[in-house]
Amino acid sequence: MGKGGQDYGKKEILGEKKESNREAYPAWSKDVKECEDKFQVRRDFGLSSDEVEKRRRIYGWNELEKHEGPSIFRLILDQFNDTLVRILLVAAVVSFVLAWCDGEEGGEMEITAFVEPLVIFLILIVNAGVGVWQENNAEKALEALKEIQSEHATVIRDGRKISSLPAKELVPGDIVELRVGDKVPADMRVLSLISSTFRVEQGSLTGESEAVSKTSKAAAEDVDIQGKKCMVFAGTTVVNGNCVCLVTDIGMNTEIGKVHSQIQEASQSEEDTPLKKKLNEFGEILTAIIGVICLLVWLINLKYFLSWDYVDGWPRNFKFSFEKCTYYFEIAVALAVAAIPEGLPAVITTCLALGTRKMAAKNALVRKLPSVETLGCTTVICSDKTGTLTTNQMAVAKLVAMGSKGSALRTFNVEGTSYDPSDGKIQDWPKSQIDANLQMIAKISAVCNDSGVEQSGHHYVASGLPTEAALKVLAEKMGLPAGLDAVSSSANNGGLRSSNIWNKIEKRIATLEFDRDRKSMGVIVQNSNSGRKLLLVKGAVENLLERSSFVQLRDGSVVELDQTLRNLVLESQHEMSTKALRVLGFAYKDDVPEFATYTGDEDHPAHKLLLNPANYSSIESKLIFVGLAGIRDPPRKEVRQAIEDCRAAGIRVMVITGDYKNTAEAICREIGVFGSHEDISSRSLTGKDFMDLRNPKSHLRQLGGLLFSRAEPRHKQEIVRLLKEDGEVVAMTGDGVNDAPALKLADIGIAMGIAGTEVAKEASDMVLADDNFSTIVAAVGEGRSIYNNMKAFIRYMISSNIGEVFSIFLTAALGIPEGLIPVQLLWVNLVTDGPPATALGFNPPDKDVMKKPPRRSDDSLISPWILFRYLVIGLYVGLATVGIFIIWYTHDSFFGIDLSGDGHSLVTYAQLANWGQCNSWENFTASPFTAGNLVFNFDTNPCDYFQTGKIKAMTLSLSVLVAIEMFNSLNALSEDGSLLTMPPWVNPYLLVAMSVSFGLHFLILYVPFLAQVFGIVPLSLNEWLLVLLVALPVILIDEVLKFVGRCTSGVPTSARTTKHKAE
């Protein structure tokens, strides 16, 4: 933990000592008088200025703390906390020192020597820069959280009202007045309602799908956050009414402050991705291997730079050659450069970036590149319900109307999952003639309604309460009676033609606002044609039935509401409630004598009745009941298939929601998380019940889907933490402020792009542009495909590096001159290997990629058999590169290919292996040879034939290495599949990449300046034929190894499958 984190921890401990008594006080469970006494304040006077200052010294300011993140220097140092990077750094430093020492001689080799360390340093700088940028983004979630805080508040202090006090100046005990549209500035206890109702939108904090009605009545002490109906929380928004509140918690002690602390805590415990862990393990193994090989090289060549004589049985007269020691030290550096796949970070980044583009096309916007790979091994998806599995757009699912006299009720199923009036229709709807009863339901739905629905781009959005918007859409689907249908063609209001017509016919002149006691809303309307007054009412079915005396039948006739019909309606209402539908009833009254002459005039006697909400129940009496509708937040159409795909892919789905248990269970049954008749008593728990379990891990280990309802932020975090402890790779979805800590803690945090808060988006690794669960499943499939392709190119690059190591090791072991220098190896690893490795990222996905279980996060990148295969290939690469070097020095032709055209001298293998003793050979001469336009002459120093003269042999070795690695990339198309079944053209990008790599190799061969930098010369046609002859067998060797692998893989594969299932 950095300095900032330590300070924060200390502040929190001090705060606990100072404020423990206050925090223990449950204001929501005490009545208003007790709360005022506890905080020593009167609501009509508020706190005095002196008291405010005294409390500020105790509690501080009402703001979220600024966490001091790690310094830039610390972040940069952390980027070098990686084994591969450390090896590279050491190799670069040593290369730079050697180049500096050799630089005193000047000349051409000075340029070559400095290229290698400078390129390695450049790679390290770019890698560190990307890492710092990614880690710096982690702090943005905390900054976004601060933006949702209120800036001002209306406060009563010293007996007077301050209308715009900065919210940061609030202290516990302050009296605050809230109005419609206000953002709540602190956690507060409701003291009294000024309006008849007071509703707050707190879904972003608690996960509830609708605005919550608040009251001043106390709740139980052990109730969850959703049950604290007398509390309002910082950062939430008032959508209806106004009230007076008492500040109970400020700053970091508010619910949003706790979320802030949880995000900070979660960001401290972020882990490396599965791929990063594997690459780190690989780096550690590589370090050990490089160390052993370097030691072997030195031991084998010790005799060349350290010798001694034996005198009386003891070694004496030690002779040390610094020049030779430096030479073999350079070989050790070359080994390190050869063993490390320097181009791997760049290729991985490129592949992940290409993956993000593919995912973006599928509406999954990746914010952090490593998330693409992590998605591929996701084993559990913890999904929010509202807006992810459902549309977050309320829709009427069932309509119940009255039948003919003495007959049963009529039930209509309503299709559609959005606010689009053309989305679905009403099944079995009487198109020819809408009867009087249905007309009245449509009229009440359209007119007794304060919401609106408008088209925004290609979709529809609601303003006002979602349930009322659903009724407006129902009125559109119901249509108009024959007489009014012609009129509607001229009226179009954002797609709500029917509602517009009904509102023109029935002009609203008064509103009886909803309140929590009578649980209904009414409007008094006047018919624009006849002038007749009507009272239209909608609300809770039980309450409407209590105040209804009559019922309207199908033909419009009105009869008395008897007990039989009342029971029928209640049965229908109960049936819909058990399916988690929110049921609203419709009623009207055609005899309202008090309002017979009322037109909205404030001087009219009826106006006084409307000013007092206590009169509303008596006005809404002796009603005529007409029908009821079941409303819900419907599941998305494509989610059920996505859940089935998850099941086939071995991914468990857990639904974690703040919504009610019954509602969530009904949705889970409908989308296939649970069976329609499955016993889910052990699979569906509230967040509180889960936390009370003795062994919560055993509950989470159950096969199949799980549901957690009424979940709070801490419950979500605990579930994610326990799953990760159990070795699961967890993807967590969320859209609210309350989801941010769990999003940060999960392996993959997925935020909603449309409904998501900025806090959730900044805490996430991926954002869904369409808020759709099925997009996650598609992204997981893409992640698996990308991982398989990454595995292909990682293996390809590692196998290439094994070949380079074998080449250098054989050179040192045989004692022949150095065939490949570090700058050439660096060129091959970075540039020549890069395009094919990147192209392997375009391999087409397996058709059954989502039919296999997720890979385990600890699965090895390279199995023992694959390692053996690449060791064999590597051994061949070493033999081929060293072999062609020896062939050029010792043969004038090979398999009929003439190599004498350049005029070079031939030597024996013994001379080549002991080239260091050249000065002691008698009569040794080397004739001049040509390479392109260059002529190499050795008249002054024939022994220079093994130093400067090896340039042609080096070029052949480098060309063979490049050619073999190009052909080896074809082997990497499939792990076990033959090129006969998966030909090269299945990935045309690979063929293009091979052409690019060969083109780059030709570039450094035939451009004089580049040839000088890399220490190579142009080759003739015969020499290219030799290169191809030596390189092509790598395909045949790997085909034989793949065939052996396919023949022997039957038993191990089944064994692996059995083991995985057992686990």
Automatic annotation (TrEMBL):
Ranges of biased composition (kind: Basic and acidic residues): 8-22
InterPro entries: ATPase_P-typ_cation-transptr_C, ATPase_P-typ_cation-transptr_N, ATPase_P-typ_cyto_dom_N, ATPase_P-typ_P_site, ATPase_P-typ_TM_dom_sf, ATPase_P-typ_transduc_dom_A_sf, ATPase_P-type_domA, HAD-like_sf
GO molecular function, one term: P-type calcium transporter activity
Domain Cation-transporting P-type ATPase N-terminal span(s) in chain numbering: 26-100
Keywords linked to the UniProt accession: ATP-binding, Calcium, Magnesium, Membrane, Nucleotide-binding, Translocase, Transmembrane, Transmembrane helix
Domain of life from the UniProt record: Eukaryota
Gene3D superfamilies linked: Calcium-transporting ATPase, cytoplasmic domain N, Calcium-transporting ATPase, cytoplasmic transduction domain A, Calcium-transporting ATPase, transmembrane domain, HAD superfamily/HAD-like
Protein's membrane topology: Multi-pass membrane protein
Region described as Disordered: 1-23
Subcellular location: Membrane
SUPFAM superfamilies: Calcium ATPase, transduction domain A, Calcium ATPase, transmembrane domain M, HAD-like, Metal cation-transporting ATPase, ATP-binding domain N
TM annotation in the entry: 83-100, 112-133, 285-306, 326-354, 793-816, 867-889, 989-1007, 1013-1036
This protein's name: Calcium-transporting ATPase 4, endoplasmic reticulum-type-like isoform X2
Native species: Coffea arabica
Record lineage: Eukaryota, Viridiplantae, Streptophyta, Embryophyta, Tracheophyta
Name of the coding gene: LOC113709462
